[in-house]
Amino acid sequence: MKKGMTLRRRQALLGISFIFPWLCGFVLLFAVPLLQSIRYSFSKLNILPGGGYELESVGLSNFRYAILTDATYNRLLTEAVLDMVINVPLILFFSLFCATLLNQKFRGRSVARALFFLPVILASGAIAQAELAGLINMTGSAQAAEELAESSALFDTLPFTSLLLDLNVPMVVVDYLIGAVNRIYEIITSSGVQILIFLAALQSIPSSMYEVARLEGATSYEIFWKITFPMVSPLILTNVIYTIIDSFTNSPVTETIYNTAFQSLDFGLSASMAWIYTLTVGLLLIGIGYVVSRRVFYYH
Amino acid sequence: MFSFLGMMGAFMALPLVFAINAAFKPLDEIFLFPPRVFVRKPTLNNFVDLFTLMSNSWVPFSRYIFNTVFVTLMGIIGHVLIASAAAYPLSKHRFPGREVLFTSVVLALMFSPHVTQIPNYMIMSWIGFIDTYWALIVPAFAFPLGLYLMKQFMEQIPDAILEAAKIDGASEYRIFWTVVMPNVKPAWLTLIILLFQLLWGNHGEGFIYSEQLKSLHYALEQIIFGGFARHGVAAAVALAMMTPPILFFIFAQSRIIETMAASGMKD
Protein backbone atom coordinates (compact mmCIF):
# COMPACT_ATOMS: atom_id res chain seq x y z
CA MET A 1 0.00 0.00 0.00
CA LYS A 2 1.42 3.40 -0.97
CA LYS A 3 1.78 6.08 1.65
CA GLY A 4 0.24 9.03 -0.13
CA MET A 5 -3.24 7.61 -0.51
CA THR A 6 -6.17 8.81 1.52
CA LEU A 7 -7.78 6.40 3.93
CA ARG A 8 -10.86 6.23 1.81
CA ARG A 9 -9.00 5.34 -1.34
CA ARG A 10 -6.96 2.76 0.45
CA GLN A 11 -10.11 1.13 1.79
CA ALA A 12 -11.70 1.14 -1.62
CA LEU A 13 -8.65 -0.53 -3.13
CA LEU A 14 -8.56 -3.13 -0.43
CA GLY A 15 -12.24 -3.86 -0.89
CA ILE A 16 -11.74 -4.30 -4.59
CA SER A 17 -8.76 -6.60 -4.07
CA PHE A 18 -10.97 -8.90 -2.01
CA ILE A 19 -13.77 -8.87 -4.53
CA PHE A 20 -11.67 -9.00 -7.67
CA PRO A 21 -11.38 -12.77 -8.24
CA TRP A 22 -15.07 -13.22 -7.78
CA LEU A 23 -15.91 -10.19 -9.88
CA CYS A 24 -13.93 -11.54 -12.84
CA GLY A 25 -15.90 -14.74 -12.91
CA PHE A 26 -19.15 -12.99 -12.30
CA VAL A 27 -18.76 -10.45 -15.06
CA LEU A 28 -17.59 -13.04 -17.54
CA LEU A 29 -20.07 -15.79 -16.83
CA PHE A 30 -23.12 -13.99 -15.50
CA ALA A 31 -23.11 -10.30 -16.34
CA VAL A 32 -22.04 -10.58 -19.97
CA PRO A 33 -24.57 -13.28 -20.84
CA LEU A 34 -27.19 -11.23 -19.03
CA LEU A 35 -26.46 -8.15 -21.09
CA GLN A 36 -26.27 -10.26 -24.21
CA SER A 37 -29.78 -11.52 -23.47
CA ILE A 38 -31.06 -7.93 -23.31
CA ARG A 39 -29.82 -7.54 -26.87
CA TYR A 40 -31.51 -10.77 -27.87
CA SER A 41 -34.78 -9.63 -26.41
CA PHE A 42 -34.90 -6.68 -28.81
CA SER A 43 -33.94 -8.64 -31.87
CA LYS A 44 -34.67 -11.62 -34.04
CA LEU A 45 -31.92 -14.19 -34.07
CA ASN A 46 -31.25 -15.74 -37.44
CA ILE A 47 -29.05 -18.78 -37.58
CA LEU A 48 -26.69 -18.59 -40.51
CA PRO A 49 -26.17 -21.66 -42.65
CA GLY A 50 -22.62 -22.78 -41.89
CA GLY A 51 -22.73 -21.78 -38.22
CA GLY A 52 -23.00 -18.62 -36.20
CA TYR A 53 -25.91 -16.23 -36.07
CA GLU A 54 -26.86 -12.69 -36.86
CA LEU A 55 -29.14 -10.35 -34.97
CA GLU A 56 -31.87 -8.40 -36.68
CA SER A 57 -33.26 -5.59 -34.60
CA VAL A 58 -37.04 -5.73 -34.20
CA GLY A 59 -37.63 -3.17 -31.45
CA LEU A 60 -40.28 -3.96 -28.89
CA SER A 61 -42.18 -6.49 -30.96
CA ASN A 62 -40.91 -9.47 -28.94
CA PHE A 63 -42.25 -7.94 -25.75
CA ARG A 64 -45.53 -7.02 -27.41
CA TYR A 65 -45.91 -10.56 -28.69
CA ALA A 66 -45.15 -12.14 -25.30
CA ILE A 67 -47.69 -10.06 -23.42
CA LEU A 68 -50.45 -9.45 -25.94
CA THR A 69 -50.38 -12.22 -28.50
CA ASP A 70 -48.94 -15.36 -26.94
CA ALA A 71 -51.80 -17.60 -25.86
CA THR A 72 -50.51 -18.84 -22.54
CA TYR A 73 -47.65 -16.65 -21.42
CA ASN A 74 -49.47 -13.93 -19.48
CA ARG A 75 -51.77 -16.44 -17.83
CA LEU A 76 -48.82 -18.59 -16.72
CA LEU A 77 -47.06 -15.50 -15.45
CA THR A 78 -49.94 -14.38 -13.21
CA GLU A 79 -50.38 -17.92 -11.99
CA ALA A 80 -46.72 -18.26 -11.12
CA VAL A 81 -46.67 -14.95 -9.28
CA LEU A 82 -49.83 -15.80 -7.33
CA ASP A 83 -48.43 -19.19 -6.44
CA MET A 84 -45.32 -17.55 -5.20
CA VAL A 85 -47.25 -15.09 -3.04
CA ILE A 86 -49.12 -17.95 -1.41
CA ASN A 87 -46.19 -20.31 -1.03
CA VAL A 88 -43.53 -17.98 0.32
CA PRO A 89 -45.10 -17.25 3.74
CA LEU A 90 -46.03 -20.91 4.16
CA ILE A 91 -42.55 -22.13 3.34
CA LEU A 92 -40.99 -19.55 5.63
CA PHE A 93 -43.25 -20.40 8.51
CA PHE A 94 -42.76 -24.12 8.06
CA SER A 95 -39.00 -23.93 7.73
CA LEU A 96 -38.51 -21.64 10.72
CA PHE A 97 -40.71 -23.93 12.76
CA CYS A 98 -38.78 -27.03 11.72
CA ALA A 99 -35.44 -25.32 12.19
CA THR A 100 -36.33 -24.32 15.74
CA LEU A 101 -37.35 -27.87 16.52
CA LEU A 102 -34.28 -29.34 14.87
CA ASN A 103 -32.08 -26.96 16.80
CA GLN A 104 -33.09 -28.51 20.14
CA LYS A 105 -30.85 -31.11 21.65
CA PHE A 106 -32.19 -34.60 21.26
CA ARG A 107 -30.89 -37.99 20.25
CA GLY A 108 -30.53 -38.61 16.55
CA ARG A 109 -30.60 -34.92 15.81
CA SER A 110 -28.21 -35.01 12.89
CA VAL A 111 -30.15 -37.86 11.30
CA ALA A 112 -33.39 -35.92 11.72
CA ARG A 113 -31.79 -32.91 10.06
CA ALA A 114 -30.62 -35.06 7.19
CA LEU A 115 -34.17 -36.35 6.75
CA PHE A 116 -35.48 -32.84 6.32
CA PHE A 117 -32.81 -32.14 3.77
CA LEU A 118 -33.62 -35.35 1.91
CA PRO A 119 -36.08 -33.78 -0.58
CA VAL A 120 -33.32 -31.50 -1.84
CA ILE A 121 -30.99 -34.43 -2.34
CA LEU A 122 -33.70 -36.42 -4.06
CA ALA A 123 -34.42 -33.60 -6.46
CA SER A 124 -31.10 -33.78 -8.26
CA GLY A 125 -29.78 -35.55 -11.33
CA ALA A 126 -29.80 -39.30 -11.55
CA ILE A 127 -31.82 -39.62 -8.38
CA ALA A 128 -34.57 -37.48 -9.83
CA GLN A 129 -34.54 -39.65 -12.94
CA ALA A 130 -34.95 -42.71 -10.79
CA GLU A 131 -37.75 -41.01 -8.95
CA LEU A 132 -39.51 -40.29 -12.19
CA ALA A 133 -39.20 -43.93 -13.06
CA GLY A 134 -41.04 -44.70 -9.84
CA LEU A 135 -38.17 -46.27 -7.95
CA ILE A 136 -38.42 -44.01 -4.95
CA ASN A 137 -42.11 -43.30 -4.70
CA MET A 138 -44.23 -46.30 -3.92
CA THR A 139 -46.90 -45.60 -6.46
CA GLY A 140 -45.09 -46.78 -9.53
CA SER A 141 -44.66 -43.45 -11.29
CA ALA A 142 -44.46 -39.85 -10.20
CA GLN A 143 -47.40 -39.01 -12.43
CA ALA A 144 -49.62 -41.49 -10.65
CA ALA A 145 -48.43 -40.20 -7.31
CA GLU A 146 -49.43 -36.68 -8.21
CA GLU A 147 -52.84 -37.73 -9.42
CA LEU A 148 -53.37 -39.81 -6.29
CA ALA A 149 -52.36 -36.90 -4.10
CA GLU A 150 -54.74 -34.59 -5.91
CA SER A 151 -57.75 -36.86 -5.71
CA SER A 152 -57.23 -37.74 -2.07
CA ALA A 153 -56.66 -34.10 -1.16
CA LEU A 154 -59.93 -33.10 -2.77
CA PHE A 155 -61.68 -35.86 -0.93
CA ASP A 156 -60.23 -34.83 2.42
CA THR A 157 -60.76 -31.10 2.36
CA LEU A 158 -64.50 -31.00 1.70
CA PRO A 159 -65.65 -31.72 5.27
CA PHE A 160 -62.88 -29.51 6.54
CA THR A 161 -64.08 -26.62 4.38
CA SER A 162 -67.68 -26.90 5.50
CA LEU A 163 -66.58 -27.16 9.12
CA LEU A 164 -64.63 -23.93 8.85
CA LEU A 165 -67.46 -22.18 7.03
CA ASP A 166 -69.86 -23.30 9.74
CA LEU A 167 -67.56 -21.69 12.25
CA ASN A 168 -68.01 -18.40 10.39
CA VAL A 169 -64.39 -18.22 9.30
CA PRO A 170 -64.16 -15.76 6.39
CA MET A 171 -64.03 -17.36 2.96
CA VAL A 172 -60.64 -15.83 2.17
CA VAL A 173 -59.04 -17.42 5.20
CA VAL A 174 -60.68 -20.76 4.45
CA ASP A 175 -59.38 -20.63 0.90
CA TYR A 176 -55.90 -19.92 2.13
CA LEU A 177 -55.97 -22.70 4.71
CA ILE A 178 -57.27 -25.25 2.24
CA GLY A 179 -54.66 -24.13 -0.22
CA ALA A 180 -52.01 -24.59 2.44
CA VAL A 181 -53.21 -28.09 3.25
CA ASN A 182 -53.29 -29.06 -0.39
CA ARG A 183 -49.80 -27.73 -0.93
CA ILE A 184 -48.24 -29.43 2.04
CA TYR A 185 -46.18 -31.81 -0.07
CA GLU A 186 -44.88 -29.00 -2.24
CA ILE A 187 -44.07 -26.91 0.81
CA ILE A 188 -42.22 -29.64 2.65
CA THR A 189 -40.16 -30.59 -0.34
CA SER A 190 -39.13 -27.04 -1.09
CA SER A 191 -38.14 -25.96 2.39
CA GLY A 192 -34.99 -28.05 2.77
CA VAL A 193 -32.52 -25.30 2.01
CA GLN A 194 -34.46 -22.72 4.00
CA ILE A 195 -34.40 -24.98 7.05
CA LEU A 196 -30.66 -25.27 6.61
CA ILE A 197 -30.18 -21.51 6.42
CA PHE A 198 -32.35 -20.95 9.47
CA LEU A 199 -30.43 -23.63 11.35
CA ALA A 200 -27.18 -21.86 10.60
CA ALA A 201 -28.75 -18.62 11.81
CA LEU A 202 -30.03 -20.22 15.00
CA GLN A 203 -26.61 -21.60 15.70
CA SER A 204 -25.08 -18.15 15.49
CA ILE A 205 -27.17 -17.04 18.47
CA PRO A 206 -24.98 -17.14 21.59
CA SER A 207 -26.32 -19.44 24.28
CA SER A 208 -25.51 -16.86 26.95
CA MET A 209 -28.51 -14.86 25.78
CA TYR A 210 -30.79 -17.79 26.47
CA GLU A 211 -29.14 -18.38 29.83
CA VAL A 212 -29.76 -14.78 30.88
CA ALA A 213 -33.35 -14.95 29.69
CA ARG A 214 -33.91 -18.15 31.67
CA LEU A 215 -32.38 -16.60 34.78
CA GLU A 216 -34.68 -13.63 34.44
CA GLY A 217 -37.58 -16.05 34.34
CA ALA A 218 -38.69 -15.73 30.71
CA THR A 219 -40.99 -18.42 29.33
CA SER A 220 -40.09 -20.36 26.20
CA TYR A 221 -42.70 -18.40 24.29
CA GLU A 222 -41.19 -15.09 25.33
CA ILE A 223 -37.69 -16.36 24.59
CA PHE A 224 -38.71 -17.28 21.07
CA TRP A 225 -40.27 -13.90 20.29
CA LYS A 226 -37.80 -11.72 22.18
CA ILE A 227 -34.53 -13.47 21.34
CA THR A 228 -34.77 -16.14 18.67
CA PHE A 229 -37.02 -14.27 16.29
CA PRO A 230 -35.17 -10.92 16.26
CA MET A 231 -31.83 -12.71 15.98
CA VAL A 232 -32.83 -14.72 12.92
CA SER A 233 -34.80 -11.89 11.33
CA PRO A 234 -32.01 -10.81 8.94
CA LEU A 235 -32.06 -14.33 7.54
CA ILE A 236 -35.81 -14.19 7.03
CA LEU A 237 -35.23 -11.70 4.26
CA THR A 238 -32.53 -13.97 2.84
CA ASN A 239 -34.90 -16.87 2.88
CA VAL A 240 -37.72 -14.91 1.28
CA ILE A 241 -35.43 -14.10 -1.60
CA TYR A 242 -34.06 -17.63 -1.80
CA THR A 243 -37.58 -19.08 -1.83
CA ILE A 244 -38.66 -16.78 -4.61
CA ILE A 245 -35.58 -17.61 -6.65
CA ASP A 246 -36.05 -21.30 -6.02
CA SER A 247 -39.65 -21.20 -7.18
CA PHE A 248 -38.27 -19.55 -10.30
CA THR A 249 -36.04 -22.32 -11.46
CA ASN A 250 -38.77 -24.87 -11.91
CA SER A 251 -41.95 -22.99 -12.65
CA PRO A 252 -44.13 -23.44 -15.73
CA VAL A 253 -42.99 -20.01 -16.92
CA THR A 254 -39.37 -21.10 -17.00
CA GLU A 255 -40.45 -24.17 -18.91
CA THR A 256 -42.23 -22.02 -21.47
CA ILE A 257 -39.15 -19.86 -21.79
CA TYR A 258 -36.99 -22.93 -22.33
CA ASN A 259 -39.35 -24.41 -24.89
CA THR A 260 -39.58 -21.14 -26.77
CA ALA A 261 -35.83 -21.03 -27.01
CA PHE A 262 -34.91 -24.61 -27.75
CA GLN A 263 -38.01 -26.10 -29.37
CA SER A 264 -39.48 -23.22 -31.34
CA LEU A 265 -35.97 -21.78 -31.66
CA ASP A 266 -37.22 -18.25 -31.06
CA PHE A 267 -34.40 -16.96 -28.92
CA GLY A 268 -35.44 -13.32 -29.10
CA LEU A 269 -38.93 -14.04 -27.82
CA SER A 270 -37.64 -16.31 -25.07
CA ALA A 271 -35.16 -13.66 -23.93
CA SER A 272 -37.87 -11.04 -23.72
CA MET A 273 -40.15 -13.46 -21.86
CA ALA A 274 -37.38 -14.09 -19.38
CA TRP A 275 -36.85 -10.38 -18.88
CA ILE A 276 -40.54 -9.72 -18.32
CA TYR A 277 -40.54 -12.50 -15.76
CA THR A 278 -37.42 -11.25 -14.05
CA LEU A 279 -38.67 -7.68 -13.90
CA THR A 280 -42.06 -8.71 -12.50
CA VAL A 281 -40.51 -10.76 -9.76
CA GLY A 282 -37.83 -8.15 -9.22
CA LEU A 283 -40.47 -5.52 -8.52
CA LEU A 284 -42.22 -7.89 -6.16
CA LEU A 285 -38.94 -8.60 -4.44
CA ILE A 286 -38.16 -4.93 -3.98
CA GLY A 287 -41.59 -4.41 -2.41
CA ILE A 288 -41.23 -7.36 -0.06
CA GLY A 289 -37.64 -6.50 0.71
CA TYR A 290 -38.62 -2.96 1.63
CA VAL A 291 -41.34 -4.09 4.01
CA VAL A 292 -39.32 -6.87 5.61
CA SER A 293 -36.04 -5.01 5.95
CA ARG A 294 -37.69 -2.30 8.00
CA ARG A 295 -38.55 -4.89 10.60
CA VAL A 296 -35.21 -6.63 10.53
CA PHE A 297 -33.15 -6.35 13.65
CA TYR A 298 -29.36 -6.20 13.52
CA TYR A 299 -27.41 -6.96 16.64
CA HIS A 300 -24.80 -4.24 16.95
CA MET B 1 -43.93 -30.76 19.40
CA PHE B 2 -41.55 -33.66 19.09
CA SER B 3 -44.30 -36.02 18.11
CA PHE B 4 -44.97 -33.66 15.22
CA LEU B 5 -41.29 -33.73 14.36
CA GLY B 6 -41.32 -37.50 14.60
CA MET B 7 -44.28 -37.74 12.26
CA MET B 8 -42.76 -35.40 9.73
CA GLY B 9 -39.48 -37.24 10.00
CA ALA B 10 -41.13 -40.55 9.37
CA PHE B 11 -42.95 -39.07 6.40
CA MET B 12 -39.71 -37.72 4.99
CA ALA B 13 -37.88 -40.97 5.64
CA LEU B 14 -40.37 -43.00 3.64
CA PRO B 15 -38.77 -42.46 0.22
CA LEU B 16 -35.38 -43.31 1.68
CA VAL B 17 -36.66 -46.53 3.22
CA PHE B 18 -38.36 -47.38 -0.04
CA ALA B 19 -35.25 -46.68 -2.10
CA ILE B 20 -33.08 -48.80 0.15
CA ASN B 21 -35.54 -51.65 -0.08
CA ALA B 22 -35.96 -51.29 -3.82
CA ALA B 23 -32.22 -51.66 -4.30
CA PHE B 24 -32.36 -55.13 -2.76
CA LYS B 25 -35.48 -56.33 -4.51
CA PRO B 26 -35.36 -58.99 -7.20
CA LEU B 27 -36.91 -57.90 -10.48
CA ASP B 28 -40.27 -59.56 -9.92
CA GLU B 29 -40.77 -57.70 -6.66
CA ILE B 30 -39.93 -54.34 -8.21
CA PHE B 31 -42.77 -54.68 -10.67
CA LEU B 32 -45.18 -56.03 -8.11
CA PHE B 33 -48.50 -54.20 -7.99
CA PRO B 34 -49.63 -53.01 -5.50
CA PRO B 35 -46.04 -52.24 -4.53
CA ARG B 36 -44.67 -53.28 -1.17
CA VAL B 37 -42.36 -51.10 0.87
CA PHE B 38 -40.31 -53.88 2.39
CA VAL B 39 -38.40 -56.43 0.45
CA ARG B 40 -39.39 -60.08 0.83
CA LYS B 41 -36.45 -61.96 -0.62
CA PRO B 42 -33.50 -59.57 -0.44
CA THR B 43 -30.86 -60.10 -3.09
CA LEU B 44 -27.56 -58.50 -4.01
CA ASN B 45 -28.15 -59.19 -7.70
CA ASN B 46 -28.80 -55.54 -8.51
CA PHE B 47 -25.42 -54.53 -7.19
CA VAL B 48 -23.69 -57.43 -8.89
CA ASP B 49 -25.30 -56.33 -12.17
CA LEU B 50 -24.24 -52.78 -11.53
CA PHE B 51 -20.62 -53.79 -11.07
CA THR B 52 -20.73 -55.93 -14.19
CA LEU B 53 -22.05 -53.00 -16.17
CA MET B 54 -19.48 -50.73 -14.64
CA SER B 55 -16.56 -52.96 -15.49
CA ASN B 56 -17.77 -53.19 -19.10
CA SER B 57 -17.87 -49.47 -19.68
CA TRP B 58 -15.84 -47.81 -22.38
CA VAL B 59 -13.62 -45.80 -20.07
CA PRO B 60 -12.73 -47.31 -16.70
CA PHE B 61 -15.48 -46.54 -14.27
CA SER B 62 -13.14 -45.10 -11.69
CA ARG B 63 -12.54 -42.31 -14.16
CA TYR B 64 -16.17 -41.14 -13.85
CA ILE B 65 -15.91 -41.26 -10.09
CA PHE B 66 -12.69 -39.27 -10.16
CA ASN B 67 -14.25 -36.67 -12.46
CA THR B 68 -17.18 -36.03 -10.18
CA VAL B 69 -15.14 -36.00 -6.99
CA PHE B 70 -12.51 -33.71 -8.50
CA VAL B 71 -15.02 -31.22 -9.88
CA THR B 72 -17.02 -31.22 -6.66
CA LEU B 73 -14.00 -30.69 -4.43
CA MET B 74 -12.39 -27.99 -6.54
CA GLY B 75 -15.69 -26.21 -7.00
CA ILE B 76 -16.45 -26.19 -3.29
CA ILE B 77 -13.02 -24.99 -2.18
CA GLY B 78 -12.80 -22.31 -4.83
CA HIS B 79 -16.30 -21.08 -4.36
CA VAL B 80 -16.20 -20.82 -0.58
CA LEU B 81 -12.89 -18.94 -0.67
CA ILE B 82 -13.77 -16.57 -3.46
CA ALA B 83 -17.33 -15.91 -2.39
CA SER B 84 -16.43 -15.23 1.23
CA ALA B 85 -13.55 -12.99 0.21
CA ALA B 86 -15.94 -11.00 -1.94
CA ALA B 87 -18.70 -10.99 0.66
CA TYR B 88 -16.49 -9.50 3.37
CA PRO B 89 -15.97 -6.03 1.87
CA LEU B 90 -19.50 -6.04 0.49
CA SER B 91 -20.92 -6.42 3.96
CA LYS B 92 -18.40 -4.54 6.09
CA HIS B 93 -16.74 -1.85 3.98
CA ARG B 94 -18.10 1.19 2.23
CA PHE B 95 -16.78 1.74 -1.26
CA PRO B 96 -18.22 3.17 -4.46
CA GLY B 97 -20.30 0.79 -6.54
CA ARG B 98 -21.15 -1.44 -3.62
CA GLU B 99 -24.91 -1.16 -3.98
CA VAL B 100 -24.81 -1.60 -7.74
CA LEU B 101 -22.71 -4.72 -7.39
CA PHE B 102 -25.00 -6.27 -4.85
CA THR B 103 -28.15 -5.46 -6.79
CA SER B 104 -26.68 -7.10 -9.86
CA VAL B 105 -25.93 -10.21 -7.82
CA VAL B 106 -29.56 -10.50 -6.79
CA LEU B 107 -30.67 -9.87 -10.35
CA ALA B 108 -28.33 -12.56 -11.64
CA LEU B 109 -29.69 -14.95 -9.04
CA MET B 110 -33.20 -14.38 -10.30
CA PHE B 111 -32.53 -14.67 -13.97
CA SER B 112 -33.68 -17.80 -15.72
CA PRO B 113 -30.60 -19.84 -16.56
CA HIS B 114 -31.90 -21.13 -19.89
CA VAL B 115 -31.78 -17.77 -21.57
CA THR B 116 -28.14 -17.18 -20.86
CA GLN B 117 -27.22 -20.61 -22.18
CA ILE B 118 -26.22 -19.45 -25.63
CA PRO B 119 -24.10 -16.43 -24.63
CA ASN B 120 -22.67 -18.61 -21.88
CA TYR B 121 -21.57 -21.26 -24.32
CA MET B 122 -20.02 -18.68 -26.60
CA ILE B 123 -18.00 -17.17 -23.79
CA MET B 124 -16.87 -20.59 -22.66
CA SER B 125 -15.71 -21.48 -26.13
CA TRP B 126 -14.04 -18.09 -26.50
CA ILE B 127 -11.94 -18.71 -23.37
CA GLY B 128 -11.35 -22.26 -24.49
CA PHE B 129 -13.05 -23.94 -21.57
CA ILE B 130 -15.23 -26.23 -23.65
CA ASP B 131 -14.52 -29.88 -23.00
CA THR B 132 -12.28 -29.27 -19.99
CA TYR B 133 -12.84 -29.53 -16.27
CA TRP B 134 -12.78 -25.74 -16.11
CA ALA B 135 -16.15 -25.50 -17.82
CA LEU B 136 -17.65 -27.10 -14.73
CA ILE B 137 -15.42 -25.69 -12.02
CA VAL B 138 -15.11 -22.02 -12.95
CA PRO B 139 -18.85 -21.26 -13.13
CA ALA B 140 -19.11 -22.75 -9.65
CA PHE B 141 -16.54 -20.19 -8.46
CA ALA B 142 -18.60 -17.24 -9.56
CA PHE B 143 -21.97 -18.63 -8.60
CA PRO B 144 -23.92 -15.71 -7.05
CA LEU B 145 -25.78 -17.65 -4.34
CA GLY B 146 -22.75 -18.14 -2.13
CA LEU B 147 -21.83 -14.49 -2.17
CA TYR B 148 -25.37 -13.61 -1.27
CA LEU B 149 -25.55 -16.05 1.62
CA MET B 150 -22.14 -15.16 3.01
CA LYS B 151 -22.90 -11.46 2.87
CA GLN B 152 -26.14 -11.86 4.78
CA PHE B 153 -24.35 -13.77 7.52
CA MET B 154 -21.34 -11.47 7.68
CA GLU B 155 -23.58 -8.48 8.15
CA GLN B 156 -24.54 -9.92 11.50
CA ILE B 157 -21.01 -9.76 12.88
CA PRO B 158 -20.86 -6.74 15.19
CA ASP B 159 -18.64 -3.95 13.87
CA ALA B 160 -17.13 -3.59 17.34
CA ILE B 161 -15.26 -6.89 17.01
CA LEU B 162 -13.71 -5.82 13.73
CA GLU B 163 -12.79 -2.45 15.17
CA ALA B 164 -11.20 -4.11 18.17
CA ALA B 165 -9.12 -6.29 15.88
CA LYS B 166 -8.10 -3.26 13.84
CA ILE B 167 -7.06 -1.33 16.93
CA ASP B 168 -4.97 -4.29 18.02
CA GLY B 169 -3.13 -3.92 14.75
CA ALA B 170 -4.52 -6.78 12.66
CA SER B 171 -4.35 -6.34 8.89
CA GLU B 172 -7.47 -6.77 6.79
CA TYR B 173 -6.33 -10.23 5.66
CA ARG B 174 -5.72 -11.25 9.21
CA ILE B 175 -9.14 -9.94 10.29
CA PHE B 176 -10.75 -11.86 7.47
CA TRP B 177 -9.07 -15.16 8.36
CA THR B 178 -9.07 -15.05 12.14
CA VAL B 179 -12.13 -12.99 12.99
CA VAL B 180 -14.66 -13.04 10.18
CA MET B 181 -14.36 -16.58 8.86
CA PRO B 182 -14.51 -18.42 12.19
CA ASN B 183 -17.51 -16.34 13.13
CA VAL B 184 -19.51 -17.32 10.09
CA LYS B 185 -18.60 -20.99 10.25
CA PRO B 186 -22.25 -22.12 10.23
CA ALA B 187 -22.71 -20.09 7.06
CA TRP B 188 -19.88 -21.60 5.08
CA LEU B 189 -20.58 -25.09 6.27
CA THR B 190 -24.13 -24.60 5.03
CA LEU B 191 -22.76 -23.29 1.78
CA ILE B 192 -20.52 -26.33 1.45
CA ILE B 193 -23.51 -28.61 1.88
CA LEU B 194 -25.46 -26.74 -0.77
CA LEU B 195 -22.57 -26.75 -3.19
CA PHE B 196 -21.82 -30.40 -2.69
CA GLN B 197 -25.41 -31.07 -3.51
CA LEU B 198 -25.25 -28.89 -6.60
CA LEU B 199 -21.94 -30.08 -8.00
CA TRP B 200 -22.50 -33.72 -7.19
CA GLY B 201 -25.57 -33.64 -9.40
CA ASN B 202 -23.78 -31.77 -12.16
CA HIS B 203 -23.99 -33.29 -15.62
CA GLY B 204 -21.84 -30.88 -17.52
CA GLU B 205 -24.19 -31.33 -20.44
CA GLY B 206 -23.42 -29.00 -23.26
CA PHE B 207 -19.88 -28.28 -22.16
CA ILE B 208 -18.30 -31.72 -21.98
CA TYR B 209 -17.99 -34.05 -24.92
CA SER B 210 -15.12 -36.41 -24.21
CA GLU B 211 -16.15 -39.63 -22.58
CA GLN B 212 -13.13 -39.40 -20.28
CA LEU B 213 -14.38 -36.19 -18.70
CA LYS B 214 -17.99 -37.11 -18.17
CA SER B 215 -19.42 -37.18 -14.68
CA LEU B 216 -20.54 -40.12 -12.62
CA HIS B 217 -24.08 -38.85 -12.83
CA TYR B 218 -23.99 -38.92 -16.56
CA ALA B 219 -22.67 -42.46 -16.65
CA LEU B 220 -25.20 -43.72 -14.15
CA GLU B 221 -28.07 -42.03 -15.90
CA GLN B 222 -27.21 -43.97 -19.01
CA ILE B 223 -27.69 -47.12 -16.98
CA ILE B 224 -31.05 -45.95 -15.69
CA PHE B 225 -32.30 -45.24 -19.18
CA GLY B 226 -31.43 -48.77 -20.21
CA GLY B 227 -35.06 -49.89 -20.23
CA PHE B 228 -37.18 -52.20 -18.12
CA ALA B 229 -34.65 -54.96 -17.69
CA ARG B 230 -32.32 -52.49 -16.05
CA HIS B 231 -34.85 -51.44 -13.43
CA GLY B 232 -33.16 -53.37 -10.67
CA VAL B 233 -29.79 -51.87 -11.48
CA ALA B 234 -31.38 -48.44 -11.62
CA ALA B 235 -32.63 -48.92 -8.08
CA ALA B 236 -29.12 -49.77 -6.98
CA VAL B 237 -27.82 -46.70 -8.81
CA ALA B 238 -30.34 -44.46 -7.08
CA LEU B 239 -29.21 -45.75 -3.72
CA ALA B 240 -25.55 -45.36 -4.61
CA MET B 241 -26.03 -41.78 -5.77
CA MET B 242 -28.09 -40.84 -2.75
CA THR B 243 -25.71 -42.12 -0.13
CA PRO B 244 -22.75 -39.73 -0.50
CA PRO B 245 -24.79 -36.50 -0.24
CA ILE B 246 -26.67 -37.82 2.78
CA LEU B 247 -23.52 -38.94 4.56
CA PHE B 248 -21.80 -35.71 3.66
CA PHE B 249 -24.74 -33.76 4.99
CA ILE B 250 -24.74 -35.58 8.31
CA PHE B 251 -21.00 -35.10 8.62
CA ALA B 252 -21.00 -31.40 7.78
CA GLN B 253 -24.07 -30.59 9.83
CA SER B 254 -22.62 -32.17 12.93
CA ARG B 255 -19.60 -29.85 12.64
CA ILE B 256 -21.75 -26.74 12.83
CA ILE B 257 -21.56 -25.51 16.36
CA GLU B 258 -22.55 -22.28 17.94
CA THR B 259 -20.14 -19.47 17.18
CA MET B 260 -19.17 -16.60 19.37
CA ALA B 261 -20.06 -13.71 17.06
CA ALA B 262 -22.14 -11.83 19.58
CA SER B 263 -20.95 -13.38 22.81
CA GLY B 264 -17.57 -11.66 22.56
CA MET B 265 -19.31 -8.35 23.14
CA LYS B 266 -19.27 -6.43 26.38
CA ASP B 267 -21.44 -3.38 26.04
Keywords:
heterodimer, A: 300 residues, mainly alpha, two-stranded antiparallel sheet, 2 strands, B: 267 residues, 13 helices, 0% strand, globular, disordered C terminus
Task: Quickly describe the structure.
The complex is a heterodimer of chains A (300) and B (267). With 300 residues, chain A is mostly helical.
Write up this protein:
The complex is a heterodimer of chains A (300) and B (267). The two termini of chain A are 30 Å apart. Chain A is built from 13 helices and two strands. A two-stranded antiparallel ribbon of chain A has the order 1-2. Chain A has a domain at 62-86 and 202-300. Chain A is globular, with a radius of gyration of 24 Å. Chain A is mostly helical. The longest helix of chain A has 35 residues, at 7-41. Chain A is 77% helix and 3% strand. By secondary structure, chain B is mostly helical. In chain B, helix 3 (45-55) crosses helix 13 (231-255). Helix content of chain B is 69%, strand content 0%. Chain B is built from 13 helices and no strands. Chains A and B meet through helix 1, helix 3, helix 4, helix 5 and helix 9 of A and helix 1, helix 4, helix 5, helix 6 and helix 7 of B.
